[in-house]
Amino acid sequence: MKPSFKVGIITGIAVGLFAITCFSIFNWLNTRFGWGLQPATIRGLSGLLTIVIQGTGIYFSMKGTKAVQNGRLTYRQALKAGFTVAIITALITAFFGLIYCTVINPGYADYMINEARKAMLDAGKSAKQIADGLVGVRREFSIGGQVMEALIAQTVVGTIISLIMSFFMKSKRS
């Protein structure tokens, strides 16, 4: 198996598990200890932390590809290795999101919508403002929204990481 596929699968599983576990644990701690954080903020922060995991996977994919090619790696090869990890990670993360929203925590969307409603009420929003605001919240936290967000975010972020990291991982010309 090519290093990019193997690392992509490992990275995707790590990102998916981390995102679910991190959100679940920190949201529970937030509720338990009354930290006052919005669940959407916790979800966003856990999503940002997955960038570190994905970047690490992309690095190891490029490093493995370089090793297989006797230390030679062009910018294009490095970019392809990183992009492969980004796509595989996006697909696996989207699958984990689907499983989380449908099997593990089927009430996730309703929970996030209710929490957003509470935050808007606490902020003194009018009924019309709340109704208008919840339209986007419902779309964002729907099952389809969660799957699409994972697909798009992991692909875009992984591609950007790959574009930058490829400059540093490519072989130096002698």
| Number of beta-strand segments | 0
- Beta-strand level of the residues, as a percent range? under 5%
| Overall geometry | elongated
Structural class: mainly alpha
Largest sheet: none
C-alpha termini separation: 30 Å
- Work out the count of structural domains: 1
Average pLDDT, rounded to a whole number, is 95
Helicity range of the residues? over 70%
Number of helices: 6
Q: Which runs of at least 5 residues are low in confidence (pLDDT < 50)?
A: none
In angstroms, what is the radius of gyration?
A: 19 Å
Helix-strand pattern? HHHHHH
List keywords for this structure.
85% helix, 174 residues, mainly alpha
Would you kindly provide a written description of the structure presented here, covering whatever features stand out?
The protein is mainly alpha-helical and 174 residues long. The chain has one domain. The protein contains six helices and no strands. It starts with a helix and ends in a 5-residue tail after the last helix. The relative contact order is 0.16. The mean pLDDT is 95.
Q: What's the short version?
A:
The protein is mainly alpha-helical and 174 residues long. The chain contains 6 helices and no strands. Helix 2 (39-68) packs across helix 6 (143-169).
